[in-house]
C-alpha cells in the first residue's frame, strides 16, 4: 500500500524543500502539502496543496481520514526571535499543535509515523557549550526553547505510553536560499547572503564572534528523511536526536563571502537575539545519530557559501 504523507507547515523554510524531496521519493500525488499561507510555486504546481490550520483539530482529523494519511511531518511553529515578542501565543501554538498531531497519531493506527522538529534551543546557559552531548543539562531560557524541550518530553511520552512512532531532530541553524529568513536567531546566516548579493553590505544582529552550530538545508533534509527511513528497532532516542553540521561565527562567514565578493562589508549591531544566541551551544556532539542512523553531513562552509551565492544570484536575475 502506498504511503500518503502529510506535511504541515509546507510553506516554511524546511517544508518548502522537504515537500519536493518527499514527492520525489513517494510520488507527487502522495505528498499532501498544507499551511496557513501559500507555499512556493513549485509546491503548488507539483502536487496537492490545501490550506490547513493545525490548531483546528476537527479539520485535521477530517483531512487525515479522507486522504488516508500514513505519515505526518509537523513543521509549523513560531520561531525563536518571533516567539520572544509573543511568548504566550508562541507557547500555545507550538505546544497545542504538537499535542493535536500526537493525538491524531494515537487515535488512527493508519498514521504509523510522525516527524516533529526540535532545536538546539532546548539547551541553555548551563549546558556545556562545546560538543554538547545528546544527554545533558537542558535549561532553556527562551519560550521557543522551553516549548521544544516540553515537546521532546511529549514525543517520548507518546512513544512509551501509546506506542506512537514519533521521530525528531534537534536542528541547528538552517541555511537555505529557497525561502528567506523567518524570525529565528540564526537567520543572520541567511540574510547575510541576500544582503551581500543585493547591497554588498550587511548589518548583523549578532556579535562578530558568536559561534553557533549551523547546517545547510540539503543536509538537514537528508538527515530528516534518513531518520524517518530507519527501522524503529535501530533507534535508541525517542525524544530528539542531536545532529550537527558546521559551526562558525558571523565574522568567519563574512570572510568566506569576501572570497567571492571582495568588497563585502558587515556592521555589527547586536539586538535582543544576542542573549538568545549566547545561551546556545557552540558545537554539537551527534555521535549517537551517526551510530543509529549512519548520519554524516556533506556541506562545509566553503561549499555552502558557493552554492548560496550562486543560487541567490540566479533568483535576482529571474526577478
List the helices and strands and how they pair.
Blueprint: E1 5-8, H1 15-26, E2 31-35, H2 41-46, E3 49-51, H3 57-66, E4 71-74, H4 80-85, H5 87-107, E5 113-115, E6 118-119, H6 143-162, E7 166-167, E8 169-171, E9 173-175, H7 188-198, E10 201-204, E11 212-216, H8 217-229, E12 241-242, E13 246-248, H9 250-258, E14 265-268, H10 273-278, H11 287-293, H12 301-318
Parallel strand pairs: 1-2, 1-4, 2-3, 4-5, 5-7, 6-8, 8-12, 9-11, 10-14
Antiparallel strand pairs: 11-13
At a glance:
The chain is an alpha/beta fold.
Which range best describes the helical content: under 10%, 10-25%, 25-40%, 40-55%, 55-70% or over 70%? 40-55%
Mean residue pLDDT: 96
Q: How do the helices and strands follow one another from N- to C-terminus?
A: EHEHEHEHHEEHEEEHEEHEEHEHHH
For CATH, the homologous superfamily of the largest domain is named as NAD(P)-binding Rossmann-like Domain
How are the strands of the biggest sheet laid out side by side?
3-2-1-4-5-7
Which overall shape is indicated by the principal axes computed on the Cα atoms? globular
Count every beta strand, where a strand is a DSSP E run of 2 or more residues.
14
User: Which structural class is indicated by helix and strand composition?
Assistant: alpha/beta
* Content of β-strand: 5-15%
The name CATH uses for the topology of the largest domain is Rossmann fold
Low-confidence stretches: none
| Main CATH class of the largest domain | Alpha Beta
The biggest sheet amounts to: 6 strands, parallel
Count the helices. How many? 12
Tell me the Rg in angstroms.
19 Å
Please give the alpha-carbon distance between the first and last residues: 43 Å
Amino acid at each position: 500500500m502506498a504511503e500518503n504523507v502529510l506535511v504541515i507547515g509546507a510553506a516554511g523554510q524546511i517544508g518548502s524543500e522537504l515537500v519536493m524531496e518527499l514527492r520525489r521519493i513517494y510520488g507527487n500525488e502522495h505528498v499532501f502539502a498544507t499551511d496557513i499561507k501559500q507555499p512556493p510555486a513549485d509546491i503548488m504546481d507539483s502536487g496537492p496543496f490545501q490550506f490547513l490550520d493545525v490548531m483546528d483539530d476537527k479539520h485535521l482529523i477530517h483531512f487525515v481520514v479522507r486522504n488516508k494519511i500514513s505519515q505526518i511531518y509537523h513543521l509549523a511553529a513560531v520561531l525563536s526571535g518571533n516567539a520572544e515578542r509573543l511568548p504566550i501565543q508562541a507557547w500555545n501554538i507550538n505546544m497545542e499543535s504538537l499535542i493535536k498531531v500526537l493525538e491524531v497519531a494515537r487515535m488512527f493506527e493508519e498514521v504509523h509515523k510522525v516527524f516533529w522538529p526540535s532545536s538546539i534551543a532546548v539547551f541553555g546557559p548551563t549546558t556545556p557549550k562545546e560538543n554538547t552531548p545528546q544527554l545533558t543539562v537542558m535549561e532553556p531560557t527562551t519560550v521557543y526553547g522551553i516549548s521544544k524541550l516540553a515537546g521532546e518530553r511529549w514525543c517520548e511520552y507518546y512513544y512509551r505510553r501509546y506506542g506512537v512512532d514519533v521521530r525528531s531532530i534537534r536542528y541547528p541553524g538552517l541555511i537555505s536560499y529557497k525561502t528567506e529568513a523567518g524570525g529565528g536567531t540564526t537567520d543572520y546566516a541567511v540574510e547575510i547572503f541576500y544582503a551581500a548579493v543585493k547591497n554588498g553590505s550587511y548589518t548583523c544582529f549578532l556579535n562578530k564572534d558568536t559561534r553557533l552550530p549551523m547546517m545547510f538545508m540539503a543536509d538537514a533534509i537528508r538527515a530528516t528523511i534518513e531518520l524517518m527511513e530507519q527501522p524503529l528497532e535501530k533507534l535508541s532516542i525517542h525524544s530528539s536526536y542531536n545532529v550537527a553540521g558546521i559551526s562558525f561565527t558571523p565574522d568567519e562567514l563574512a570572510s568566506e563571502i569576501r572570497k567571492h565578493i571582495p568588497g563585502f562589508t558587515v556592521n555589527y549591531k547586536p539586538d535582543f537575539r544576542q542573549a538568545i544566541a549566547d545561551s546556545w551551544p557552540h558545537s554539537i556532539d551527534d555521535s549517537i545519530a551517526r551510530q543509529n542512523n549512519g548520519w554524516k553531513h556533506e556541506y562545509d562552509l566553503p561549499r555552502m557559501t558557493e552554492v548560496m551565492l550562486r543560487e541567490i544570484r540566479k533568483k535576482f536575475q529571474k526577478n
